[in-house]
Amino acid sequence: MKLFQHDYFPYITGDRVSLRQIKDADLNDLIEISFYDAIQAKTVQQAAEMQAKINQDYLDGNSIHWGIVDNVTDKIVGTCGYYRGLDKGEGELGCVLLSQYYGKGYMTNGMLLAIDFGLNQMGLKRIWAATSQQNGPAIKLLERLNFVKTADLDDDEIEYELKQTNTL
């Protein structure tokens, strides 16, 4: 089941950041945050292979993966997207930020755009996220975005779900 049908990859513009498709030219800057099936890329070639799989997942309607771009510098600062659950009308929201951009609000801005798109364009009924219990910055981010803890998972992970209000 495909929740979204686009003739083009969705480009989402916000005040500070935009979400766009990752290009081959971006891969060299993204090696440290390029992952697929929890495996990290070590080379540009591996990052390209992973990105090809990610692009195919999008075409198959199984996920959507954006680069988060600083609107002033036009540099990708991180990635975010929906990676599981789309066939059930829900989405697991995940994100990774390049270390030099930690603590500057980029991820909050990017995730807000992704949440709005998930709810209003994709029609998701549930948005959730999972992280390690030791990942304090991710937990703070999720709580700031109105996620609430819903479960303790295996492997020291915890699950959060977006608490939807009429203000989103």
Notes on the protein architecture:
The strands form two sheets. The protein has an eight-stranded mixed sheet with strand order 1-2-5-6-7-8-10-9, with helices on both faces. 32% of the residues are buried. It starts with 11 loop residues before the first strand and ends in a 6-residue tail after the last strand. The protein is α+β, with helices and mostly antiparallel strands and 168 residues long. Strand 1 (12-13) and strand 2 (17-20) form a beta hairpin. The protein has helices at residues 27-30, 44-59, 106-120, 136-144, and strands at residues 12-13, 17-20, 35-36, 39-40, 64-70, 76-82, 90-97, 126-132, 147-152, 157-162. The chain has four helices and ten strands; from the N terminus they run ββαββαβββαβαββ. The longest helix has 16 residues, at 44-59. The protein has one domain (12-162): Gcn5-related N-acetyltransferase (GNAT) (Aminopeptidase). GO terms for molecular function: protein-N-terminal-alanine acetyltransferase activity. It holds the Pfam family Acetyltransf_3. Residues 17-167 form the N-acetyltransferase domain. It comes from Chryseobacterium antibioticum. This is GNAT family N-acetyltransferase.
